[in-house]
Amino acid sequence: MSLILKLLFVSMCVFGQTTLLAKAPKIELNAILNNAVVAKINGQQLMLKLHQRSPQGYQVVEIQSDHAIFLIQGQRHKVKVGASIGSSTSAPINRVQINKNSGMYYVDGYINELGVRFLVDTGATLVAMNSQVAEQLGIDYLATGSQGVANTASGQVAAWRVQLNVVSVGNIRLNQVQAMVIEGAYPTSVLLGMSFLGQIKMQDSGNLLTLEQTF
Question: Is there a single domain that holds both residue 102 and residue 164?
Fold first, then answer.
């Protein structure tokens, strides 16, 4: 069962400046999430729903389990998850593979160089933890965080949006990752949400999740 944090003041989409390009774009398909895709287009990370146009004018016209089709200047381009088009150069890759455990993907990692156990949750907009874990990690969310609210199974509770210096899983390491600290004991596991996952590539084969970071 997917855990979904409905954070009231966090937007699910990222928007940038509208730019029309004369040459073929570079598109990297990072993940497929139900009826939407997470893709990097010319270096800009976006979440696009089926038939939605990107700020550059490109449209997702078909979504399958392992690929999506983009309409670019009247032509259809198929892009598989974890692959890209528009670039002929290869880049080094950091890769982590996670086996499914009791229907979930758990993985050990680090927040600000301190060890935690993550639950991979594509339904969580941000990396999320309860206030008890935040205190154990030395995160002064009351002083540095932006306060809001979050909806949990126990109802509406106080929450703080913070910025984590470093989040790492295996050899994948990201700096300045947005996160949410939720008052109380929920969530019981630290959720590895889209503020981390949206910056890397994901491929779910059913019982094995592969995370990749390219440079």
Answer: yes
* 40: pLDDT strictly greater than 60: yes
Tell me, yes or no, whether 77 lies in a domain: yes
Residue 51 lies in a domain: yes
Surface-to-core class of residue 144, CB atoms within 10 Å of its CB (0-12 exposed, 13-18 middle, 19+ buried): exposed
* Ordered DSSP codes for 144-177: HSEEEEEEETTEEEEEEEEEEEEEEETTEEEEEE
111-159 pLDDT tens trace: 999 999 999 999 999 999 999 999 999 999 999 999 999 887 778 999 9
CA distance to 48, 53, 137, 174, per residue, from 177 (Å): 21, 27, 15, 7
Rounded to the nearest 5°, which phi and psi values hold at 194? Answer: -75, -15
102 shares a domain with 174? yes
pTM above the 0.70 mark?
no
Of 45, 47, 43, 11, the closest CA to residue 32 belongs to 47
The CA distance from 206 to 19, in Å, is 37
Q: DSSP assignment, residue 50?
A: T
Distance, CA of 164 to CA of 177 (rounded, Å) = 5
> Sign of the C-alpha dihedral, residues 49, 67, 74, 41?
positive
Count CB atoms within 10 A of the CB of residue 126: 25
Omega before 187 cis (within 30°)? yes
pLDDT tens digits for 181-205? 999 999 999 999 999 999 999 999 8
